[in-house]
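Notebook, p. 212. Picked up where the previous page left off. The plan for this session was modest: take the two constructs that came back from the sequencing core last week, fold each one, and keep the raw output in the notebook itself so nobody has to go hunting through shared drives later. Recording the first one now, exactly as returned: residue sequence, then the structure token string.
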Amino acid sequence: MAETGDSRRRRILEATLEVIRDKGLAGVRTQEVARRAGVSAGLLLYHFGTLEGVVAAAMRESEEDYYRSFEDEAAADLPAPDRLRLLVLRQGEPDAVVAAWTLWMEFWVRALRDPETAQLCADLDSRWRSALQVVIEQGVREGVFACASPRATTIRLSALLDGLSVAATLDDPEVPVAAVPDLWLETAALELGCDRALLGLG
């Protein structure tokens, strides 16, 4: 069966993420991505226009995978505390989590000097904060969360997860990767005035 354009595009994006994780953003080269994807450099550029275009598309696709996976597991009637826990646990097993966080750190560094990357990071941060705020507002409606400003709480909890992610990725002995979800949920329980047990905390 002939390969479709969508499957070829997906293969290129996966190869791009692989190269970024292995070599960092500075080490991404069109020929290397094309080689790993099993396509020509010309075909890669045909699909994405530029190397920067494929890198941005790969990052967006990585984030979309996360949200698709979350929505697949989060039933429409799932209570807000369970949805909040799933939102942070859905990031995956430790190795996959570190790979994703490493990817983000690469983009944060580039964003300091590159306006297009800065805009990409801002867009993806906005998507995450929106998803988190929706869950917090759901919990307020259900009467299980209590916070004066869901938006302000969202910003604080989002920033906390960023900080924990950096510490864990850099092998901080006091912030092991596997402990990050519960460390974050402990603070979320305080921020949201929520019963710890509802968030699966002992």
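Okay, moving on. Second construct, recorded in the same format:
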Amino acid sequence: MKSKIKVIIADDHPIFRKGLVDIIELEKDIEILGQAANGEEAVNLIKRVSPDIAVLDINMPITTGFDTVRELRKSNSLVKVIFLTMHNEHEIFKRAMELNVSGYLLKDSAAEDIIDCIHAVAKEDFYFSPALSNYFVTNQRGIFGTLENTGIEKLTSTEKTILRLIANGKTSQEIADQLFVSRKTIDNHRVNICAKLDLHGVNVLMKYAIQNKANL
């Protein structure tokens, strides 16, 4: 029997937190191990129960989501982090990317996106609210700076299509389904794209795709 995805949720608004818990608990393959009302509680909870994924509000009392992730990194925690936020400002998103989180959800769409996000992150994908895609493309220079040589001309038409879908917030499995190929095929394409573009690091392909979406 396939093991459940183990999750904790940290948010200082109990009504919002309960709403997310109620939605997640409907999923048979996800188990909520606990809840926290601030970053300090979240760190202690994560150390105690060792979840696969931590869903963290960025703006929490005592310890912010950013500082919570830094504390977890110091303790070598392997938990994957999904940020919840009211912010669609590119500077906040950039700070989240610098911490190598696995997901970034806007609170006003979290109820619709949270399950897809958890499933994607559990499969080693990065996930961000689809509503953010156009915003980030419009503000791409403010997020990641400007690349003088994008290297897009090195890519095949299929690789460009995959990059465009990544920029639209599609996970590897969703891309595979849309292109009628296996997940492994998409993963191989991602490796090849990174090699051609000399891209290294967590989430860097997603960053590149967003920045260069207009050229794909």
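Notes on construct two before I forget. The domain at 5-136 is CATH 3.40.50.2300 (Rossmann fold).
Flagging for discussion at group meeting.
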